[in-house]
Amino acid sequence: MARKTVPPAKQxxxxxxxxFTRDLSDxxxxxxxxxxxxxxxxxxKKKWWFEATVSCxxxxxxxxEVINLRGEIVKRLMYYPKGYLAVNMGRIxxxxxxxxxxxxxxxxxxxxxxxxDDGGExx
Length: 123
Fold this sequence. Notes:
The structure is a single chain. The protein is an alpha+beta fold. The chain has one domain. 26% of the residues lie in helices and 24% in strands. The chain contains three helices and four strands. It has helices at residues 14-23, 26-34, 95-107; strands at 38-45, 49-56, 62-68, 73-79. The protein has a four-stranded antiparallel sheet, with no helix packed on it. Strand 2 (49-56) and strand 3 form a beta hairpin. 11% of the residues are buried.
């Protein structure tokens, strides 16, 4: 049987990334850079499954998982706060993700020690 090939994900342009990251709150940018800080909120037992909800304390994103009685996740729903998603831009992966990392570094507390650079390898 022939395998289906999946076309590469469309990625945003540099200009789109600049506009998107400029408008992102620090919380949203840091979750995109480091990942969400999930914390359990609720776990409800139904007749044949559990519904577990976790949320990110930093950005407010919420994830609901439907877990069967064997412990398998059978469904996962994500709810993102307004302004978190990159709508109509494509996926932020690869080089686009590199841009987000740099944007997070520039927005954070950076000690500029470039004048002290000894030219050696990073420690």
